[in-house]
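Lay summary. Proteins are chains of building blocks that fold into shapes, and those shapes determine what they do. In this project we predict the shape from the chain. Here is one chain we studied, written as its sequence of building blocks.
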Amino acid sequence: MTSMLTSDAGSAAVPGALPPSMIERITLIMDLFERPHTRRTLEQVCRCTGLPRSTAYRILEQLVRLRWLDRTDIGYRLGSRALGLGGREIGHSTLRVAAAPVLQELALRTELVVHLAVLDGPDIYYLDKVGGRSVVDVPSRVGGRAPAHCTALGKAMLAWVPPERVEAQLGGMLLRCTPRSIGEFGVLHRELSRIRTGHGLTFERGECFPGFGCVSMAVRNTDGPVGALSVVGTADAALERVAPLVMEATRTVADALYAESRRPAEGRSVAS
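And here is the predicted shape, written in a compact code that computers can read:
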């Protein structure tokens, strides 16, 4: 399809040249969301597609209702249905690339195992695991899952999910991995509140894997958590000692993701 975008930061198309079919108009809009984290306002959509404001708004809201897009405080982004077609893996790839050198450095500086994970429903999904010889001792694996409420990684991210959505995110029930796991939502909400009102650091000792402890912090953007980093040691390890390094590493990854989100897609110069 011939693009209606121009090199003039999204100047409008020639009046009267709008595509006649709804499918073509939807395609014009969806083509603006080049990456999983791209945000577009209604004004940007109108300017870049040439669609009348009322038409663009109506299509955008229908796409939100059908979960092709999500509406946020700063614009629209790809929704769960679009991400389910492959965008989720693209987003994971972007996070992995941004985090890879940071994970390696964090593992070297702490001499401990380092994880990168994302929220996936009630679970965390491990994207990466870095460490020395002790990496085989930690019972986690890349591509594996663990209940979010039992892990420091999961709680670090859940703390930034709106409280009213936490129970729905976790499926309405809390299963214990160990006797130390949180099994009541009241206790979990108090824990998440402490994380939010603190520095965002989360500690966990023996709640997921007996004998292991973890310190974690979420990687966030303006919409909430996009992932989390953690350092793993034995349950009696002085994890407070490495907490500042986890904070520094997490902020470095967040800054890299922000810089990537601001980079124009090749061949396009629409306003971000």
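What the prediction tells us: The chain has eight helices and eight strands.
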